[in-house]
Protein backbone atom coordinates (compact mmCIF):
# COMPACT_ATOMS: atom_id res chain seq x y z
CA UNK A 1 0.00 0.00 0.00
CA UNK A 2 0.99 3.61 -0.54
CA UNK A 3 0.43 5.64 2.63
CA UNK A 4 -0.32 9.28 1.91
CA UNK A 5 -1.80 12.36 3.50
CA UNK A 6 -5.26 13.43 2.43
CA UNK A 7 -4.27 16.20 0.03
CA UNK A 8 -1.21 14.52 -1.52
CA UNK A 9 -1.26 14.84 -5.28
CA UNK A 10 -1.75 11.68 -7.27
CA UNK A 11 0.66 10.29 -9.84
CA UNK A 12 4.30 10.41 -10.82
CA UNK A 13 4.44 13.67 -12.78
CA UNK A 14 6.40 16.37 -10.93
CA UNK A 15 4.34 19.35 -9.86
CA UNK A 16 5.08 22.48 -11.87
CA UNK A 17 5.65 25.75 -10.04
CA UNK A 18 4.34 27.71 -12.99
CA UNK A 19 0.90 29.20 -12.52
CA UNK A 20 0.33 29.17 -16.25
CA UNK A 21 -1.46 26.31 -17.90
CA UNK A 22 0.66 24.13 -20.17
CA UNK A 23 0.45 24.91 -23.85
CA UNK A 24 -2.22 22.74 -25.40
CA UNK A 25 -0.68 20.78 -28.22
CA UNK A 26 -3.16 20.32 -31.01
CA UNK A 27 -3.89 16.65 -31.63
CA UNK A 28 -3.41 15.21 -35.10
CA UNK A 29 -7.07 14.24 -35.22
CA UNK A 30 -10.12 16.44 -34.99
CA UNK A 31 -12.03 14.77 -32.17
CA UNK A 32 -14.29 17.81 -31.76
CA UNK A 33 -15.70 17.17 -35.23
CA UNK A 34 -17.02 13.84 -33.94
CA UNK A 35 -19.88 15.69 -32.24
CA UNK A 36 -21.26 16.92 -35.57
CA UNK A 37 -21.02 13.69 -37.55
CA UNK A 38 -24.36 12.24 -36.53
CA UNK A 39 -26.64 10.77 -39.17
CA UNK A 40 -29.66 12.97 -38.45
CA UNK A 41 -30.63 15.72 -40.89
CA UNK A 42 -32.99 18.34 -39.40
CA UNK A 43 -34.30 19.19 -42.86
CA UNK A 44 -35.72 15.65 -43.06
CA UNK A 45 -37.68 15.88 -39.80
CA UNK A 46 -41.45 15.90 -39.95
CA UNK A 47 -43.44 18.18 -37.68
CA UNK A 48 -44.12 15.26 -35.34
CA UNK A 49 -40.44 14.37 -35.27
CA UNK A 50 -39.54 17.97 -34.49
CA UNK A 51 -41.78 17.84 -31.42
CA UNK A 52 -40.04 14.71 -30.18
CA UNK A 53 -36.65 16.42 -30.51
CA UNK A 54 -37.54 19.76 -28.96
CA UNK A 55 -35.71 20.90 -25.82
CA UNK A 56 -38.02 23.22 -23.86
CA UNK A 57 -36.59 26.72 -23.40
CA UNK A 58 -37.06 26.51 -19.63
CA UNK A 59 -34.54 23.66 -19.42
CA UNK A 60 -31.74 26.02 -20.43
CA UNK A 61 -33.23 28.90 -18.47
CA UNK A 62 -32.73 26.88 -15.28
CA UNK A 63 -29.54 25.07 -16.33
CA UNK A 64 -27.21 24.37 -13.38
CA UNK A 65 -23.87 26.02 -12.70
CA UNK A 66 -21.05 23.88 -11.31
CA UNK A 67 -18.30 24.95 -8.93
CA UNK A 68 -15.32 22.67 -9.58
CA UNK A 69 -12.88 22.21 -6.71
CA UNK A 70 -10.11 24.82 -6.68
CA UNK A 71 -7.38 22.22 -6.08
CA UNK A 72 -8.75 19.64 -8.52
CA UNK A 73 -6.33 17.38 -10.39
CA UNK A 74 -8.79 15.76 -12.80
CA UNK A 75 -11.00 18.20 -14.67
CA UNK A 76 -13.95 17.69 -17.05
CA UNK A 77 -13.12 15.78 -20.24
CA UNK A 78 -14.59 15.13 -23.67
CA UNK A 79 -15.75 11.56 -24.28
CA UNK A 80 -14.79 11.88 -27.97
CA UNK A 81 -11.19 12.56 -26.98
CA UNK A 82 -11.32 9.90 -24.24
CA UNK A 83 -12.14 7.23 -26.82
CA UNK A 84 -8.98 8.05 -28.77
CA UNK A 85 -6.83 6.97 -25.83
CA UNK A 86 -8.44 3.62 -25.01
CA UNK A 87 -8.49 0.07 -26.30
CA UNK A 88 -11.61 -2.06 -25.78
CA UNK A 89 -10.80 -5.17 -23.75
CA UNK A 90 -12.70 -8.25 -22.66
CA UNK A 91 -11.36 -9.96 -19.53
CA UNK A 92 -8.11 -7.95 -19.81
CA UNK A 93 -7.69 -9.09 -23.43
CA UNK A 94 -7.82 -6.46 -26.20
CA UNK A 95 -10.46 -7.10 -28.81
CA UNK A 96 -8.46 -8.05 -31.90
CA UNK A 97 -11.05 -6.87 -34.39
CA UNK A 98 -10.90 -3.27 -33.11
CA UNK A 99 -7.70 -2.00 -34.69
CA UNK A 100 -8.80 1.63 -34.59
CA UNK A 101 -10.13 3.41 -31.50
CA UNK A 102 -13.92 3.35 -31.32
CA UNK A 103 -15.79 6.57 -32.02
CA UNK A 104 -19.03 8.18 -30.93
CA UNK A 105 -20.59 6.81 -34.12
CA UNK A 106 -19.71 3.14 -33.65
CA UNK A 107 -19.17 2.59 -29.92
CA UNK A 108 -22.38 0.55 -29.74
CA UNK A 109 -20.77 -2.11 -31.98
CA UNK A 110 -18.81 -3.27 -28.93
CA UNK A 111 -22.06 -4.75 -27.63
CA UNK A 112 -21.47 -7.66 -30.00
CA UNK A 113 -19.17 -9.15 -27.31
CA UNK A 114 -21.19 -10.57 -24.41
CA UNK A 115 -23.78 -7.84 -25.02
CA UNK A 116 -21.08 -5.35 -24.10
CA UNK A 117 -21.51 -5.75 -20.35
CA UNK A 118 -17.95 -7.00 -19.77
CA UNK A 119 -16.22 -4.77 -22.28
CA UNK A 120 -13.92 -2.21 -20.66
CA UNK A 121 -12.54 0.87 -22.41
CA UNK A 122 -8.99 0.37 -21.16
CA UNK A 123 -6.45 3.18 -21.03
CA UNK A 124 -3.52 2.92 -23.42
CA UNK A 125 -1.36 4.82 -20.92
CA UNK A 126 -0.25 4.12 -17.39
CA UNK A 127 -2.75 6.28 -15.51
CA UNK A 128 -0.31 6.85 -12.66
CA UNK A 129 1.85 8.88 -15.05
CA UNK A 130 -1.08 11.29 -15.40
CA UNK A 131 -1.17 11.85 -19.17
CA UNK A 132 -2.64 15.17 -20.25
CA UNK A 133 -5.83 13.67 -21.64
CA UNK A 134 -6.54 12.03 -18.29
CA UNK A 135 -6.18 15.25 -16.31
CA UNK A 136 -8.18 17.48 -18.63
CA UNK A 137 -6.42 20.59 -17.35
CA UNK A 138 -6.98 22.34 -20.67
CA UNK A 139 -10.72 22.06 -19.97
CA UNK A 140 -10.72 24.26 -16.87
CA UNK A 141 -13.60 26.69 -17.48
CA UNK A 142 -12.42 29.99 -18.92
CA UNK A 143 -13.73 33.18 -17.45
CA UNK A 144 -15.97 35.21 -19.79
CA UNK A 145 -14.47 38.27 -21.40
CA UNK A 146 -17.14 40.57 -19.95
CA UNK A 147 -17.22 39.64 -16.28
CA UNK A 148 -19.34 42.66 -15.38
CA UNK A 149 -22.35 41.59 -17.41
CA UNK A 150 -24.71 39.54 -15.29
CA UNK A 151 -27.28 36.95 -16.20
CA UNK A 152 -30.76 37.99 -17.18
CA UNK A 153 -32.78 38.76 -14.05
CA UNK A 154 -29.60 38.26 -12.04
CA UNK A 155 -30.03 38.52 -8.29
CA UNK A 156 -26.41 37.79 -7.38
CA UNK A 157 -25.99 34.97 -4.89
CA UNK A 158 -29.43 34.10 -3.65
CA UNK A 159 -29.73 32.09 -0.46
CA UNK A 160 -33.34 30.96 -0.49
CA UNK A 161 -33.12 27.99 1.88
CA UNK A 162 -33.00 30.26 4.95
CA UNK A 163 -36.41 29.14 6.15
CA UNK A 164 -37.69 28.41 9.59
CA UNK A 165 -39.37 25.09 10.25
CA UNK A 166 -42.79 26.75 10.33
CA UNK A 167 -42.14 28.57 7.07
CA UNK A 168 -41.09 25.31 5.52
CA UNK A 169 -44.32 23.64 6.57
CA UNK A 170 -46.39 26.57 5.38
CA UNK A 171 -45.28 26.36 1.77
CA UNK A 172 -43.76 22.89 1.55
CA UNK A 173 -44.52 21.72 -1.97
CA UNK A 174 -48.29 21.87 -1.95
CA UNK A 175 -48.42 20.19 -5.36
CA UNK A 176 -45.97 17.42 -4.39
CA UNK A 177 -48.42 14.62 -5.22
CA UNK A 178 -48.60 15.76 -8.84
CA UNK A 179 -44.87 15.40 -9.60
CA UNK A 180 -43.26 13.33 -6.85
CA UNK A 181 -43.65 9.92 -8.55
CA UNK A 182 -45.92 9.80 -11.61
CA UNK A 183 -47.85 6.55 -12.02
CA UNK A 184 -46.46 5.10 -8.76
CA UNK A 185 -49.01 3.19 -6.70
CA UNK A 186 -49.99 4.28 -3.17
CA UNK A 187 -47.42 7.07 -3.27
CA UNK A 188 -49.17 9.06 -0.52
CA UNK A 189 -48.79 6.14 1.87
CA UNK A 190 -45.01 5.98 1.57
CA UNK A 191 -42.65 7.25 4.21
CA UNK A 192 -40.43 9.22 1.81
CA UNK A 193 -43.46 11.08 0.46
CA UNK A 194 -44.47 12.14 3.97
CA UNK A 195 -40.93 13.19 4.82
CA UNK A 196 -40.78 15.21 1.61
CA UNK A 197 -43.96 17.02 2.59
CA UNK A 198 -42.13 18.17 5.71
CA UNK A 199 -39.01 18.82 3.68
CA UNK A 200 -36.37 16.96 5.65
CA UNK A 201 -35.15 13.39 6.02
CA UNK A 202 -34.54 11.67 9.33
CA UNK A 203 -30.76 11.72 9.59
CA UNK A 204 -28.27 9.80 11.67
CA UNK A 205 -26.62 12.56 13.69
CA UNK A 206 -23.52 10.45 14.23
CA UNK A 207 -22.78 10.44 10.52
CA UNK A 208 -22.99 14.22 10.44
CA UNK A 209 -20.30 14.80 13.08
CA UNK A 210 -17.04 16.19 11.88
CA UNK A 211 -13.96 14.27 12.93
CA UNK A 212 -11.15 16.35 14.45
CA UNK A 213 -8.68 15.35 11.73
CA UNK A 214 -11.29 16.22 9.11
CA UNK A 215 -11.58 19.74 10.52
CA UNK A 216 -7.83 20.15 10.33
CA UNK A 217 -7.75 19.05 6.70
CA UNK A 218 -10.43 21.44 5.47
CA UNK A 219 -7.95 24.30 5.04
CA UNK A 220 -8.65 27.99 4.73
CA UNK A 221 -11.63 29.21 2.79
CA UNK A 222 -10.57 30.58 -0.55
CA UNK A 223 -11.77 33.86 -1.94
CA UNK A 224 -14.85 33.35 -4.15
CA UNK A 225 -14.43 33.93 -7.88
CA UNK A 226 -16.50 36.15 -10.09
CA UNK A 227 -20.07 34.91 -10.27
CA UNK A 228 -20.03 34.68 -14.04
CA UNK A 229 -19.75 31.08 -15.21
CA UNK A 230 -17.07 30.07 -17.69
CA UNK A 231 -17.04 27.81 -20.72
CA UNK A 232 -15.20 24.48 -20.71
CA UNK A 233 -13.92 22.81 -23.87
CA UNK A 234 -15.26 19.57 -22.40
CA UNK A 235 -18.93 19.40 -23.42
CA UNK A 236 -21.65 18.38 -21.02
CA UNK A 237 -24.43 16.06 -22.15
CA UNK A 238 -28.04 17.15 -21.65
CA UNK A 239 -30.79 14.53 -21.89
CA UNK A 240 -34.42 15.50 -21.38
CA UNK A 241 -37.03 12.87 -20.59
CA UNK A 242 -40.76 13.57 -20.83
CA UNK A 243 -42.49 11.56 -18.08
CA UNK A 244 -46.03 12.65 -18.88
CA UNK A 245 -48.38 14.44 -16.46
CA UNK A 246 -46.58 17.68 -17.34
CA UNK A 247 -43.30 16.33 -15.93
CA UNK A 248 -39.96 16.72 -17.72
CA UNK A 249 -36.67 15.60 -16.18
CA UNK A 250 -33.54 17.35 -17.43
CA UNK A 251 -30.41 15.26 -16.84
CA UNK A 252 -27.06 17.05 -17.05
CA UNK A 253 -24.18 14.59 -17.39
CA UNK A 254 -20.54 15.49 -16.78
CA UNK A 255 -17.65 13.23 -17.81
CA UNK A 256 -14.18 13.00 -16.30
CA UNK A 257 -11.48 10.67 -17.62
CA UNK A 258 -10.32 9.80 -14.11
CA UNK A 259 -11.88 9.50 -10.67
CA UNK A 260 -9.48 9.98 -7.76
CA UNK A 261 -10.68 7.95 -4.80
CA UNK A 262 -10.89 9.24 -1.25
CA UNK A 263 -8.40 8.70 1.57
CA UNK A 264 -9.28 6.67 4.67
CA UNK A 265 -6.65 6.36 7.41
CA UNK A 266 -3.97 7.55 4.97
CA UNK A 267 -4.90 4.90 2.39
CA UNK A 268 -6.56 5.85 -0.91
CA UNK A 269 -9.39 3.68 -2.23
CA UNK A 270 -11.68 3.78 -5.25
CA UNK A 271 -9.60 5.15 -8.14
CA UNK A 272 -11.03 4.39 -11.54
CA UNK A 273 -10.67 5.44 -15.17
CA UNK A 274 -13.77 7.15 -16.51
CA UNK A 275 -16.29 8.96 -14.33
CA UNK A 276 -19.89 9.93 -15.14
CA UNK A 277 -21.66 12.32 -12.78
CA UNK A 278 -25.07 13.91 -13.16
CA UNK A 279 -27.65 16.20 -11.74
CA UNK A 280 -31.35 16.04 -12.56
CA UNK A 281 -33.83 18.89 -12.45
CA UNK A 282 -37.50 17.93 -12.40
CA UNK A 283 -39.94 20.35 -14.03
CA UNK A 284 -43.71 20.34 -13.67
CA UNK A 285 -45.54 22.35 -16.33
CA UNK A 286 -42.33 24.27 -17.00
CA UNK A 287 -41.59 25.12 -13.37
CA UNK A 288 -38.53 23.66 -11.60
CA UNK A 289 -39.60 21.58 -8.61
CA UNK A 290 -36.65 19.48 -7.44
CA UNK A 291 -32.92 19.05 -7.99
CA UNK A 292 -31.07 15.76 -7.56
CA UNK A 293 -27.33 15.69 -6.79
CA UNK A 294 -25.51 12.44 -7.58
CA UNK A 295 -23.09 11.34 -4.85
CA UNK A 296 -21.22 8.10 -5.50
CA UNK A 297 -23.81 5.29 -5.52
CA UNK A 298 -26.51 7.44 -3.98
CA UNK A 299 -27.39 11.14 -3.82
CA UNK A 300 -29.55 13.87 -2.32
CA UNK A 301 -32.67 15.63 -3.54
CA UNK A 302 -33.82 19.14 -2.66
CA UNK A 303 -36.73 21.30 -3.67
CA UNK A 304 -35.73 23.90 -6.22
CA UNK A 305 -36.48 26.65 -3.72
CA UNK A 306 -34.05 25.14 -1.21
CA UNK A 307 -30.87 25.10 -3.27
CA UNK A 308 -28.39 27.92 -3.72
CA UNK A 309 -28.85 29.79 -6.98
CA UNK A 310 -27.28 32.41 -9.18
CA UNK A 311 -30.25 34.20 -10.63
CA UNK A 312 -32.61 31.35 -11.49
CA UNK A 313 -29.91 28.73 -11.91
CA UNK A 314 -29.12 26.06 -9.29
CA UNK A 315 -25.54 25.96 -8.03
CA UNK A 316 -23.77 22.60 -7.74
CA UNK A 317 -20.50 21.83 -5.99
CA UNK A 318 -18.24 19.14 -7.46
CA UNK A 319 -16.07 17.29 -4.95
CA UNK A 320 -12.30 17.05 -5.17
CA UNK A 321 -11.21 13.94 -7.06
CA UNK A 322 -14.47 12.00 -6.88
CA UNK A 323 -16.57 14.72 -8.58
CA UNK A 324 -19.55 13.78 -6.40
CA UNK A 325 -22.15 16.55 -6.48
CA UNK A 326 -23.35 18.50 -3.46
CA UNK A 327 -25.61 21.44 -2.70
CA UNK A 328 -23.07 23.32 -0.57
CA UNK A 329 -19.35 24.00 -0.26
CA UNK A 330 -17.44 22.43 2.61
CA UNK A 331 -16.81 18.96 3.99
CA UNK A 332 -19.31 16.15 3.35
CA UNK A 333 -18.97 12.93 5.39
CA UNK A 334 -20.62 9.81 4.01
CA UNK A 335 -20.89 6.05 4.63
CA UNK A 336 -18.46 5.80 7.56
CA UNK A 337 -19.11 7.44 10.96
CA UNK A 338 -17.27 10.49 12.39
CA UNK A 339 -16.44 11.86 8.97
CA UNK A 340 -13.57 9.44 8.38
CA UNK A 341 -14.68 9.10 4.75
CA UNK A 342 -15.65 12.42 3.22
CA UNK A 343 -15.70 14.66 0.17
CA UNK A 344 -14.45 18.22 -0.05
CA UNK A 345 -16.02 21.02 -2.12
CA UNK A 346 -15.37 24.73 -2.47
CA UNK A 347 -16.04 27.70 -4.74
CA UNK A 348 -13.39 26.90 -7.31
CA UNK A 349 -13.79 27.65 -11.05
CA UNK A 350 -17.44 28.22 -11.93
CA UNK A 351 -18.48 26.11 -14.93
CA UNK A 352 -21.47 26.95 -17.08
CA UNK A 353 -22.24 23.67 -18.90
CA UNK A 354 -24.94 25.36 -21.00
CA UNK A 355 -22.20 27.19 -22.93
CA UNK A 356 -20.94 23.90 -24.39
CA UNK A 357 -23.26 20.93 -24.32
CA UNK A 358 -24.81 18.35 -26.61
CA UNK A 359 -28.53 17.95 -26.10
CA UNK A 360 -30.77 14.94 -26.62
CA UNK A 361 -34.29 13.75 -25.89
CA UNK A 362 -34.89 10.22 -24.64
CA UNK A 363 -37.98 8.04 -24.90
CA UNK A 364 -37.30 5.62 -22.06
CA UNK A 365 -40.28 3.39 -22.87
CA UNK A 366 -39.18 2.80 -26.46
CA UNK A 367 -35.48 3.10 -25.51
CA UNK A 368 -34.83 5.68 -28.24
CA UNK A 369 -32.35 8.53 -27.92
CA UNK A 370 -32.77 11.42 -30.36
CA UNK A 371 -30.47 14.31 -31.10
CA UNK A 372 -32.28 17.53 -30.30
CA UNK A 373 -33.18 20.71 -32.12
CA UNK A 374 -30.25 22.36 -30.31
CA UNK A 375 -27.51 19.96 -31.50
CA UNK A 376 -29.24 18.04 -34.31
CA UNK A 377 -26.06 16.48 -35.74
CA UNK A 378 -24.83 15.04 -32.45
CA UNK A 379 -24.28 11.26 -32.75
CA UNK A 380 -26.37 8.87 -30.67
CA UNK A 381 -24.63 5.49 -31.03
CA UNK A 382 -22.27 6.03 -28.09
CA UNK A 383 -25.26 6.16 -25.74
CA UNK A 384 -26.13 2.49 -26.34
CA UNK A 385 -22.69 1.14 -25.37
CA UNK A 386 -23.43 -1.31 -22.53
CA UNK A 387 -19.91 -1.66 -21.18
CA UNK A 388 -17.62 0.29 -18.89
CA UNK A 389 -16.04 3.66 -19.66
CA UNK A 390 -12.70 2.73 -18.09
CA UNK A 391 -10.33 -0.01 -17.00
CA UNK A 392 -11.35 -3.21 -15.30
CA UNK A 393 -10.04 -3.27 -11.73
CA UNK A 394 -6.38 -4.20 -11.81
CA UNK A 395 -5.41 -7.66 -10.50
CA UNK A 396 -3.38 -7.77 -7.31
CA UNK A 397 -0.27 -8.78 -9.23
CA UNK A 398 -0.35 -5.34 -10.87
CA UNK A 399 2.04 -3.02 -9.00
CA UNK A 400 -0.59 -0.26 -9.03
CA UNK A 401 -3.14 -2.33 -7.18
CA UNK A 402 -3.65 -3.26 -3.54
CA UNK A 403 -6.50 -4.34 -1.32
CA UNK A 404 -7.12 -3.48 2.32
CA UNK A 405 -10.12 -4.49 4.44
CA UNK A 406 -11.82 -5.77 1.28
CA UNK A 407 -11.48 -2.44 -0.54
CA UNK A 408 -9.42 -1.94 -3.71
CA UNK A 409 -7.16 0.93 -4.64
CA UNK A 410 -8.47 0.67 -8.25
CA UNK A 411 -12.03 -0.37 -9.09
CA UNK A 412 -14.02 -0.84 -12.29
CA UNK A 413 -14.81 2.05 -14.57
CA UNK A 414 -18.49 3.10 -14.66
CA UNK A 415 -21.27 2.45 -17.12
CA UNK A 416 -22.75 5.29 -19.15
CA UNK A 417 -25.78 7.60 -18.86
CA UNK A 418 -28.20 5.06 -20.31
CA UNK A 419 -27.78 3.00 -17.15
CA UNK A 420 -28.55 5.81 -14.68
CA UNK A 421 -32.25 4.97 -14.56
CA UNK A 422 -33.41 7.83 -16.75
CA UNK A 423 -36.97 6.51 -16.62
CA UNK A 424 -37.12 6.86 -12.84
CA UNK A 425 -40.51 7.81 -11.44
CA UNK A 426 -39.03 9.77 -8.56
CA UNK A 427 -36.31 12.33 -9.08
CA UNK A 428 -33.91 10.01 -7.23
CA UNK A 429 -32.51 6.93 -9.03
CA UNK A 430 -33.12 3.37 -7.95
CA UNK A 431 -36.24 1.20 -7.86
CA UNK A 432 -39.65 2.70 -7.26
CA UNK A 433 -39.69 1.30 -3.72
CA UNK A 434 -36.38 2.97 -2.80
CA UNK A 435 -36.82 6.01 -0.53
CA UNK A 436 -36.44 9.48 -2.04
CA UNK A 437 -36.82 12.32 0.43
CA UNK A 438 -36.90 15.80 -1.08
CA UNK A 439 -35.51 18.27 1.46
CA UNK A 440 -37.18 21.65 1.53
CA UNK A 441 -34.30 23.44 3.24
CA UNK A 442 -30.61 22.79 3.73
CA UNK A 443 -29.84 20.89 6.92
CA UNK A 444 -27.38 21.93 9.61
CA UNK A 445 -24.73 19.87 7.88
CA UNK A 446 -25.35 21.65 4.58
CA UNK A 447 -24.37 25.18 5.50
CA UNK A 448 -23.59 27.63 2.75
CA UNK A 449 -22.04 31.05 2.96
CA UNK A 450 -23.11 34.25 1.29
CA UNK A 451 -21.07 36.06 -1.27
CA UNK A 452 -20.73 39.81 -0.80
CA UNK A 453 -20.97 41.74 -4.04
CA UNK A 454 -20.57 45.47 -4.51
CA UNK A 455 -23.40 47.43 -6.07
CA UNK A 456 -23.03 50.42 -8.34
CA UNK A 457 -22.61 52.70 -5.29
CA UNK A 458 -19.72 50.67 -3.93
CA UNK A 459 -21.86 49.31 -1.09
CA UNK A 460 -21.95 45.64 -0.13
CA UNK A 461 -24.91 43.59 -1.25
CA UNK A 462 -25.41 40.11 0.20
TrEMBL record:
- Which InterPro entries does the record match to this protein? Vps62 (IPR009291)
- On the tree of life, the source organism's domain of life is Eukaryota
Name this polypeptide is given? Vacuolar protein sorting-associated protein 62
Lineage runs: Eukaryota, Fungi, Dikarya, Ascomycota, Pezizomycotina
